[in-house]
Amino acid sequence: MKTLSVFTTLLAVTAAKKCIVKDTSAPAADDVAVPSDEEIVEVTGSLEDVEDSSVESAEETPKKKLPADFKWGAATAAYQVEGAWNEDGRGESVWDHFTHLYPKNVESGDRTNPDSTNGNVACDSYHKFDEDVKMMKIMKANHYRFSISWSRLFPDGEAKKVNGKWNVNEKGTQYYNMVIDTLLENEITPLATLYHWDLPYALHEKYGGWLDYRSQDDFAKYAEYCFETFGDRVKGWITINEPWVNCVSGYRLGPGKAPYRCTGEAPRKLQNDTTGLDLEGGCSYEIGPSQYYKGAEVLPANRAPQRLEDVWCSHNILIAHAKAVNVYRKKFQKKQKGLIGITIDGEAQIPWQDANTTPEELENNKKYANLAAEFRIGWYSDPPMVGDYPASVKQRMGKDMPVFTPEEKKLLKGSSSDFLGWNTYTAHWAEQVKNEDGTYVQPPTDDEASFETSKQDMWDDNCRGRGEGWSCIPPTLGSQAGSSWNTKYGPTIRVGLNWFADRYKGLIKNGIIITENGCAQPNYKVSRANDLVTKEYFESIGQPEYADTYDESIIEDESNIEGSIINDEYRIDWYAQYLENLRLAYAEDGVDVRGYMAWSLVDNFEWENGYETRFGMTYIDFYNDDERTRVPKKSLEFLGQWYLENVEQA
Ligand code: GAL
């Protein structure tokens, strides 16, 4: 049995032991390293293992502060906060379309309220941005990460310049001009994400969205408009948010994330929500363009085979990112002097160790932790850094792995060398799984390798690497927060930062930015009560330690928001743990980490969890308060104080 005391001991040691030489002479923010047009970064050296060495414990380490130019702020995404879904000429996104079609796919505590299962109104930031800025001030933000809604600018997704004029929805431009100008007036630097999952629905209807190679150029054109229009003021661009989640949750796992497709599973018909979404049924190939139909194995050229939709979505989205970066570098970067990169997600993989683990097994687990990380994270971070998928991923996927052309590799390589954005929340154990007779399960041979065998992973004793969606609770570390996948375990951020820093040593010019990190409040209302991940559930699978913060008797409702909703001690402890580990990664390990964006500034539309899962540092009563009044939580003040105490003040 794995216990929390083992977690604590192991990770305190694991995290503190990393001692890696990094480039600590990184330039200051105003002196950013912008690449030249032709620059192609050569990859040198091997992907080394982290070497252990003994250092003092965290308590004894003299406190070194983060530098004065540290990017400090909070993050949100357009569909989650803006609302105004059909105002001022905005076009439909896949999220509008699918939440309207299948409202029951989204959790809601008040189904009598038509806005409770979608982002129609959300935080109404479209009309209340000034209120959001007030919240940023409380946490002393010097940056704000927001995303631009593609379909607010180009309702049908296709950006075109004809006779020198863009076919843009001017009202959309006005809105983002207002956002950017308001931030700058308040001395907050905008960090803009171009794509946070809200693909224009028209492109899904037209060619299957990210399943089709045409999405690459449509994205690059839309990006070009944004650079041209906002780039005089926006100096930090994130192309894509979390390609893994977008593609795996949207195209593989069925209900959950738009467009609710479910490659690799037997297609089952979703009912239109007039009768209720058949959540048992799950997913559908009926959703989407007509050429994607049940049983179709022969698809038009350049289309992903059905069983590999998430893989091809990922492939297209990575190339789309690289094409957008290329446009920026060729046409805008020299003049505008901004930075551009991608944001990827993924849990740090921690080598499993307990009292019975032999040194040999530990070594093996370290190797498998790295392989698991390559599969879960490197799949997405290697292409924009070194220009190709990791060799281990290609080996495991065999002939099912799409191949980048030489031109694509060239475009990809170094396309996130300005900075790398990483969203991190939780941690996974990793080990090589053993057969019943105690022998190791071996990786598939080259001949056997395929999408199917790649799923028979040999690490992560429960979830087995990539995981099987919601049917599997990964063996995460730490205490259970308010989302099934969201566990509090501070050292994970340090382990992950070190993994990136080692792997891409010398390749990231302006450091790593934590573009999201945050905590869903546990014991909050319906999602807790309805979620599979109850205390009983963990007990039933023999892992009660994962439910250690659970107390169903204190499931919150909103009749007394002063309780742990506003007084969010659990979240404060989350931030304290993660931020201290981030500081240690910088101060002790020399990792070049340049920023931290907390998720999230405000409670917002948490995708399939609707308004029933709260990640915000600001409370909003979504069901009863048409004004969407912002009420700061204690964590917002805590972050303001943390900033003053732990970041050098200029
Ligand atoms: C991230 C995502 C955010 C937010 C957060 C919390 O994966 O980028 O939009 O939802 O998770 O679930």
Automatic annotation (TrEMBL):
Keyword Hydrolase part of the UniProt annotation: yes
Keywords: Glycosidase, Hydrolase, Signal
Signal sequence bounds: 1-16
InterPro entries: GH, GH_1_N_CS, Glyco_hydro_1
Pfam family name, one: Glyco_hydro_1
MF terms in GO: beta-glucosidase activity
Claim: Signal is one of the keywords in the record: yes
PROSITE patterns noted in UniProt: GLYCOSYL_HYDROL_F1_2
GO biological processes: carbohydrate metabolic process
Family: Belongs to the glycosyl hydrolase 1 family.
Protein name: Putative cellulase
Species in which this protein is naturally found: Piromyces finnis
